[in-house]
Specification:
This protein has 112 residues and is an all-alpha fold. It has helices at residues 2-13, 19-31, 39-49, 62-75, 80-107. It has one domain (2-106). Helix 1 (2-13) packs antiparallel against helix 5.
Length: 112
Amino acid sequence: MYNKLILFRNELKNKTVPKYKIIGIVSELILSRQVFPRNLDIEEFLKEIFSLEFKTYLFKSRTLVVARVAREIIAMEKDDTYKGKLYKFVQQKADFLKDAEKKEKNQFDGWI
């Protein structure tokens, strides 16, 4: 997942990012259990990045959340507001996963 996050970060660096790429990035993030281990974490992510709030029944299924968020992103007119927030989120998650991988590798260095 770390490699995908790096690719997403590089895509979000561009000045103009088409909506279909943003929808794809957000869909991959929401469906990933490494990024969001619990479905409640998705709710916080959507409030923070997109200022979207949905009813609680929707968060029982990740695919329903992806469909609803994709529809909302298509309807949004200003993508500059959430593009920067999404970039920062992806950067933080990439750093977190990189540190987690280092910790896992270092545990077994003494055994070898």
